[in-house]
């Protein structure tokens, strides 16, 4: 039975990955901070799909939490989904430096360290995959959040390029707006985001799994966002930055 470790597996996109991979017959390692919620998620997956899940409570913003997840990955895993993440409200210049650093730790350091813990075993077995959840924001300029996600895309593409000729895949997943707990947790007012821009977490995960099977290095689910990213690359960066800063202020 193949195994998968998912960070941020209790809510939103991570929970959708857990459902999809359980349905596909993976045994799971579920990572997040809230142990009670992790245990409830594992139980619900057991009842619905008959899979056993390990629960690994860890705060990826701490070295101690990262070390425990690294140790689990070194025991061997077939698929790593680096998904845990969060946002801050308002202008990033108003966010405290410790909070910004916490974001870089979860979005960048955790992705780097967990990927590097998983890859040696995958390379040895010559199979396996890493999905790093970035964002469409990676292609726009919107402060530390988009900068951290741009790092995730660049890092994933670079790592995938290094692995050409092997059967180990690395892919960045770049969703647009997805209905999850993300915006509420970050106290971001999502009411101004037009309804047609919202995606479902299950659809995002299904398209990302198709893209992984196709060997893509970057997955941008849904035609709407493929167009937005394509147009974003054509307009001058200064204009794209002004538009995204305006959206980001809400
Ligand atoms: N929703 C969107 O519109 C959207 C769009 C593009 C990209 N994304 C990206 O998608 C990923 C998942 O977001 P989501 O929308 O599914 O968010 P979500 O519904 O808020 O879920 C976040 C998950 O991450 C876990 N988590 C947060 N901080 C953590 C930490 N320090 N250590 C360990 N686990 C942590 C949370 O559990 P605990 O609180 O128990 O730790 C939860 O399971 C993020 O990387 C986000 O940046 C989201």
From TrEMBL:
<keyword id="KW-0560">Oxidoreductase</keyword>
<dbReference type="InterPro" id="IPR036291">
    <property type="entry name" value="NAD(P)-bd_dom_sf"/>
</dbReference>
<comment type="similarity">
    <text>Belongs to the short-chain dehydrogenases/reductases (SDR) family.</text>
</comment>
<protein>
    <submittedName>
        <fullName>SDR family NAD(P)-dependent oxidoreductase</fullName>
        <ecNumber>1.-.-.-</ecNumber>
    </submittedName>
</protein>
<dbReference type="GO" id="GO:0016491">
    <property type="term" value="F:oxidoreductase activity"/>
</dbReference>
<dbReference type="InterPro" id="IPR002347">
    <property type="entry name" value="SDR_fam"/>
</dbReference>
<dbReference type="Pfam" id="PF00106">
    <property type="entry name" value="adh_short"/>
</dbReference>
<dbReference type="InterPro" id="IPR051019">
    <property type="entry name" value="VLCFA-Steroid_DH"/>
</dbReference>
């Amino acid at each position: 039975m193949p195994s998968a470790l998912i960070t941020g597996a209790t809510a939103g996109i991570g929970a959708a990955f857990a459902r999809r991979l359980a349905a596909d017959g993976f045994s799971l390692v579920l990572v997040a901070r809230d142990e009670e919620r992790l245990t409830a998620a594992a139980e619900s997956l057991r009842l619905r799909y008959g899979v056993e899940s390990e629960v690994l409570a860890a705060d990826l913003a701490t070295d101690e939490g990262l070390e425990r997840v690294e140790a689990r990955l070194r025991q061997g895993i077939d698929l790593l989904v680096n998904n845990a993440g969060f946002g801050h409200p308002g202008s990033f210049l108003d966010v405290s430096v410790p909070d910004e650093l916490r974001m870089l730790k979860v979005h960048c350091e955790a992705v780097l360290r967990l990927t590097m813990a998983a890859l040696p075993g995958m390379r040895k077995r010559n199979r396996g995959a890493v999905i790093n959840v970035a964002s469409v924001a990676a292609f726009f300029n919107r402060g530390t959040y988009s900068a951290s996600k741009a790092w995730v895309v660049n890092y994933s593409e670079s790592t995938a390029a290094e692995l050409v000729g092997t059967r180990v895949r690395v892919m960045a997943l770049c969703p647009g707006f997805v209905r999850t707990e993300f915006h509420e947790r970050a106290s971001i007012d999502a009411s101004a985001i037009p309804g047609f821009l919202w995606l479902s977490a299950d659809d995002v995960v299904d398209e990302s799994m198709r893209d992984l099977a196709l060997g893509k290095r970057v997955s941008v689910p849904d035609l709407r966002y493929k167009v937005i990213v394509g147009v974003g690359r054509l307009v001058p960066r200064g204009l794209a930055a002004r538009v995204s800063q305006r959206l980001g202020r809400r």
